[in-house]
Design a protein that fits this description.
The structure is a homodimer of 202-residue chains. The first copy, chain A, contains eight helices and nine strands. In chain A, a hairpin with a 2-residue loop joins β5 and β6. In chain A, the strands form two sheets. In chain A, strands 2-7-1-8-9 form a five-stranded parallel sheet, sandwiched between helices. In chain A, α1 packs across α7 and α5 runs antiparallel to α6. By secondary structure, the first copy, chain A, is of the alpha/beta class. Chain A has a domain of 134 residues: 3-Layer(aba) Sandwich (Rossmann fold), CATH 3.40.50. Chains A and B meet through α6, β9, α7 and α8 of A and α6, β9, α7 and α8 of B.
Chain lengths: 202, 202
């Protein structure tokens, strides 16, 4: 049995990482998704336990105290974090679990978890990213410029990731992500036991 | 443009590495193959410049003196080596070049070339490897046992490689090798320039 892997996906708003992630989980249904614990109120359309577990501030602070989180952040008064237990379970069983986190989360997780693989989703250019954000029609020009500044900061952090996927064509980007996961399954870090198995050692 | 890569393929006699390599080079014709320089006489069926350049002992020793080889070995009085120039040319142009070398060659190259990617081809088991060698019908029982000893030594060195491909089914093994190369093209080591390109820096 191969060793497990924690897979991190990040990318700026407008990179298409949510859509890519959804499609990758359909293509490789054996991969688990890490549900974040958060303290902000549920928004319309959100479902408890799908992408997030909605918990109280007190419960979250207990998790921090008891070292139950792999990483967490406080953003405008609300906590966001990754519970340790489900991640450790999947890795110990030799599986893969995907975490959708930002560049700060990736930095924290990478320094803690040896068996991690991080993928950054990039738009093909800054101009295309701006056009995508404008095209959504949901944000004011001011909000868009703020998002662009954050995006550029995040893209500069892409150098800290293991892989970069350029999302120019969605289907190609999905295929690229799947290719990275499949190649990683043959990585020596995950196959040290296989050498002994082939050699007939226990 | 991405940075180039030196790809190393190794595997014991009977692992199927020659067949896999041939198929991979057909599927990805943009990949170059590194032609070794050797001093042993040409064997029937071999073609100058195909897999080997047949050179004199004097010429080979001049290459050693002039630091023109990436790695070399002397085996029963004959030299085998990898000329540096073609490898450096391909890497500087952002391409990929495959070297078919043994576990000692891999160790030497890996310590010298930062931008290398090494893949070890494994048989599914020691028993299958023995059956394959017997099935060829070309070697005596004694030669087969000698090959098996070498193979087991080589397989124990597989832990020094970046990836392991198990050759149980040939088409699957070819696909696996292609997947490793394609994923590697998205590796951050090869894409540092792409971040600047997306960000519009020169």
């Amino acid at each position: 049995m191969s060793n497990g892997r924690l897979v991190i996906i990040s990318g700026p708003s407008g990179s298409g990482k949510d859509t890519i992630l959804k499609r990758v989980l359909e293509i490789l249904p054996e991969i688990k998704f890490s549900i974040s614990s958060i303290t902000r109120p549920m928004r319309p359309g959100e479902v408890e336990g799908e992408k997030y577990n909605f918990v109280s501030k007190e419960y979250f602070e207990d998790m921090i105290k008891n070292d139950m989180l792999l990483e967490y952040n406080n953003y405008v008064g609300n906590y966001y974090g990754t519970p340790k237990a489900p991640v450790e379970k999947v890795i110990n069983e030799g599986g893969e679990i995907i975490l959708e986190i930002d560049v700060n989360g990736q930095k924290n997780v990478k320094s803690q978890v040896e068996s991690s693989l991080s993928v950054f989703i990039m738009p093909p250019s800054v101009e295309v990213l701006r056009e995508r954000l404008i095209g959504r029609g949901t944000d004011s020009a001011e909000v868009i410029e703020k998002r662009m500044k954050t995006a550029i900061f995040e893209m500069e952090c892409a150098k800290n990731y293991d892989y970069i996927v350029i999302n120019d064509d969605l289907e190609k980007a999905v295929e690229d992500f799947v290719t990275i996961i499949k190649a990683d399954r043959m990585n020596i870090q995950r196959n040290n036991k296989i050498i002994d198995e082939v050699l007939g050692k226990c």
